[in-house]
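Before anything else, study the sequence and fold tokens given here and see whether the fold suits the sequence. Record follows:
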Amino acid sequence: MSVLDVFGADIAMNRENPDAEGAAGQQPSPAQKRRHRRRLLPVAGLTCLLLTAAGTANAAAATGSSAAAPATGSSAAAQTPAEILQAGAQQGVADGYPGVIGMVRKGDTAQYVHAGVGNRATKVPADPKAKFRIGSNTKAFISTVLLQLEGEKRLSLDDTVAKWLPGAVAANGYDGSKITIRQLLNHTSGLPDYLGSLQINGPYFLNTNPREVFPPQTLVNVALGMRAPASAPGEKFGYSNTNYVLAGMVIKAVTGSEPAAEVQRRIIEPLGLSDTSFPTSDPALYGNYLNGYVIRAILIDDGTVSNVQVTGSAGAMVSTMDDLAAFSRALMTGKLLEPAQMAELKTTVPVTADVGYGLGIEHLKLSCGKWAWGHNGAVLGYFSEWLSSEDGTEQVLHTNNEFHLLAGTPGQTHTGKAMTDAFCAL
């Protein structure tokens, strides 16, 4: 397996990340024309592979809190946000996904959609309440912890990496004394993405040893050895999972606790996210979960059990639609951060004219003219995305249970388009 290139920020933004080694994924913006070609990803968390430019699909009316299956006739045009999302889920299954789930929330009213199966062996329907791996949606949790630590005056986002991690970034022309924590969080550090290395993504894709140990510093060292610096720190956006591995290492240096423990104590427990976890070594999922699948050649393999140490603070968390929506709403409405840190969270660096990247979240202008905050995540077997309004009152999320390191697939295009159309219809 080789990594051919990477994406830049949302699924309809016709642009490529200049750092070809790195960046688990982003794609083109809705306001622009989309490239319909497949590209091999370095995984772990597609930045906001959000939004596509395909036409609106058809769906039947939603009933109760769960959208009904779409009508069979082409004349049954989708009308409500839940119907639009349901149609996208159905199309995703037609495109080859085993299952797709989604959620539309306006105010305190949530509607759920689902299509296909959560387990190909048992044929159990895909459950909108099931757990799944959230990939790079983990990044917003990590940035929130660091912003909280700044609010407690335990660090500054303008501290250098070298202040907290002396010697961690000091090879091949990279200098941690010139890179700040803020630059890690907004992806302007200039560091390569370790997931672009065949040494890492080959075994990960093949899933040969889900328990293989990958210490964070080992992942950083792989990244530093990939190439000499292509840009100076702070010069430009370049999505790299290495940034968030280092961010997790900073959390441990400051607090003495693993980043997973700090996320648990500061976010998961206070918000009551009972179906959210941050595994650090155990590759299995438990309880009610979607099985994750991986297409290899013409076979579809079960990739539910996979190595969480490869992604760590960049993308190892597990959650549900409800919990991810609750977290993003709490984050957007200031329940987790003080006003000064909220301002920092939402201070963006340009990705394109219509897309900016903040600290673990992305701000983007949709084709309908609405602005939204969001992110996405892609790890072996799972692909998820969310959008939220500024005040958190409007949210759309969706997840599928197949990901094989390729971007720009029909399923991603159609479900992403349905998500943004549903958000525009709220």
Summary: The first helix runs from residue 81 to 94. The mean pLDDT is 86. The radius of gyration is 20 Å. The CA atoms of residues 210 and 307 lie 4 Å apart.
